[in-house]
């Protein structure tokens, strides 16, 4: 078995080209029209809360966090999360989610929100948001809107428009 030197780092501008390739591989050209992508187009992601994983110096995975206001919750939108096909099913994505969510919590985020698969994200601490509680800038499957709350009243305040915040 090959030895892998996985290293998790905070994203910086030098990673942009590799991240674009990884996201293209994972999501294809249609990724730009999704509701979550429309939120990300409203303003920049927070590089201090966005991370990559390298294997022997090559960027092989990334996760980004975008500051958002979701109803009455000042939180972060997680995504895209992508891992190169050669490195899937090794726990790299789960570790990136863990690192990013913990960094957001430490920075004072009230919650991390994403649009994703409940069976994957549920064991990582994400919960379903109330049906159609958040209004996205485009179609979204309400069953896939998930939150990792960092305060007891987050679910009660997750009602209304979701969008980028400064």
From TrEMBL:
Q: Which UniProt keywords apply?
A: Acyltransferase, Transferase
**Residue span(s) of domain N-acetyltransferase:** 6-153
Which top-level group of life is the source organism from?
Bacteria
Give the InterPro entries listed for this entry.
Acyl_CoA_acyltransferase (IPR016181), GNAT_dom (IPR000182)
Q: What class of enzyme is it?
A: transferase
Q: Does the keyword Ligase apply?
A: no
Q: Does the keyword Acyltransferase apply?
A: yes
Q: What is its EC number?
A: 2.3.-.-
Against Pfam families, the record matches this protein to: Acetyltransf_1 (PF00583)
> GO terms for molecular function, please?
acyltransferase activity
**Name of the protein in question:** GNAT family N-acetyltransferase
State the organism named in the record. Answer: Shinella pollutisoli
